[in-house]
Write a structure and sequence with these properties.
alpha+beta, two-stranded antiparallel ribbon, 2 helices, 5 strands
Length: about 130
């Protein structure tokens, strides 16, 4: 019966595979870190855009004032930790209830400090809804 022997790699091949493993793990860790820093602002913007769409849709058929809509959107921005002020939120209503147009928009920037690379993400959530009557 033949004895089973492990083939021993030359030292340089073993060192190279260790270096490749370390580099692969480092790149994976960097990717996870960057993703953990960049994805949350995009997700918050998605939720904020949804809140603006809902507010515009509901306000088209209600008697809500522009200031009341602005306050509602501002509260949502605060809960999502979005850096906007009340004055940054532009709300316009034209026409009558049910047949008018409601337009809501704002601009904001989120600053992310990545090591060696500061990053500014610019967002412009907006919504326009027109009544059916």
């Amino acid at each position: 019966m033949k004895a089973f022997r492990l083939r021993r790699l030359p030292q340089t091949e073993s060192d190279m595979s260790t270096i490749k493993l370390i580099l692969t793990l480092a790149l994976l860790a960097i990717g996870v870190y960057v993703g953990a820093e960049v994805i949350p602002p995009y997700f918050a913007n998605y939720q904020f855009q949804d809140a603006i769409d809902t507010e515009a849709r509901l306000a088209t058929y209600s008697t809500k004032s522009e200031d009341s809509m602005r306050d509602s959107i501002f509260k949502q921005a605060q809960s999502l930790e979005i850096p906007v002020t009340r004055d940054d939120i532009k709300v316009q209503r034209s026409g009558n209830q049910g047949s008018g147009i409601v337009f809501i928009e704002t601009d904001y920037t989120v600053h992310i400090d990545l090591p060696g690379y500061p990053l500014d993400l610019h967002f412009h959530p907006a919504s326009k809804n027109k009544g059916v009557f």
